[in-house]
Every structure is written in C-alpha cells, then in structure tokens.
Automatic annotation (TrEMBL):
GO terms for cellular component: nucleus. Residues 38-127 form the GRAM domain. It comes from Helobdella robusta (Californian leech). It holds the Pfam family GRAM. This is GRAM domain-containing protein. GO terms for molecular function: chromatin DNA binding; transcription coactivator activity.
Amino acid sequence: MSLNTSHAGKDGVVLFNSERIFIYHDGVELSFDKAWDNRMKGKKSGRIYLTTHRVIFVNKDNKDKLLSLSMPFHTMKKLELEQPVFGANYIAGVVKAEQGANWQGEAMFKLVFYKGGAIEFGQAMLQAGKLASRYAPPQPPTYSPPMAPYYEAPPPAYTPQMQYGGIYPSPVFNVQPPPGSVYMYDIPPPYPGVDPNLPPYPISQPAQPFSVPQYPGLCVCVCVCVVCE
C-alpha cells in the first residue's frame, strides 16, 4: 500500500499505463484501526476505484493529510465483506506497506459504502485478486512512487470492461467517473494485475480453493484472503 501517490488535483485519480478501472463508487468512508501513521487517523470520505491492479481511494477533502490510498492486490489479506443488520455494508481487511510507499508496517482498514455497492465491489475485488495472484512473480517487485508527468486518460481506461479476465462488473458499473477526473502515467504498473494475455506463473504447491460467494440476505460475514500467507 502507498499513501498520496495516486491522486491528481482536487478529485482526480492517476492510473498506470494500461491499467483499467473495473468499478467506481462515490460516497465511501475509509478508516483505519490501530494505524501508527498520523495521516491515517480519522475517517475519510471520498471515491473508491477497483482497477486491474489495485484498489484506489481518493479523499474528497483536499486539505486532509491523506489525499489518496493505493492498495495493490498482493498487499491485502484477511478480507471480509460484512452486511450488518443496522448500518451500511462494508469491506474490511489488513494491508501492508510497499517499499518506498511513504509509510511502513501493516494496518487494518475499513471501507463503508454509504451509497451502496459494497457487495458488487467486494465480489469483483475478490475475483480480481484471485486472478492477479496467478500472474504474480514469486517475489513482489520493488516499488517506488512514480515521478513521471501524467495526462488525461483515454476513455478505454474507465469504460466498462466486458469479460476482462473472467470478471463481469459492467452491470454494476452504471456511473462512470466524472469527466476530467481520470489521469494516466506513461509508465506501466510496477506490480502484477489481471492480465489474461500473460501466462500464469508456475504454482509450486496445489492452489487453495477459492470461490466468489453469493450474498442473498443480511448478517453475512465472508472472510477470504486475496493472497494467503
């Protein structure tokens, strides 16, 4: 995970070259439990993006110390999708810092979807994490915050992705990010993502069963690791 490396201007998000957005939601609250970095304290409200490589949160308060949060799939574990009887649905989990990511350690995070969409986002997030792990090298690459200039992304970066690597989020991708809010670097992603054109890495041990569950009612808590350690 990296802090303050994926935002542009007041509300914009910055992608890597060839990175694509699966799902976008507004009205999401981010908070951390036992976060040792002062920038991660308190509740943050903003937008959440699920891409082919990671989850990105962009704070709507441009005066806050945490402006954006990038969580590649390989940095997350112990993910839970919860549907309380009272209150909005949310996704929780543990995320660890990348090298050179502007912070250190691990933190427990919580994403509350006050305008709905947690179930659809969570299902696609788990499925994308599963697929991304197939293309992950044995050791995650060293990360350094991008320094290159960025530019407004072309429409394919944020239009619904049909049947991309087995993920079908287009029925819930009913609102695109606002015009002029999606930008892109010229450099490619520095970590693995969902790329059906790449051959999977050999697996030294049998793969653990992984399924994307259905959520017919309330009071459901599902715990699935994107990358089991």
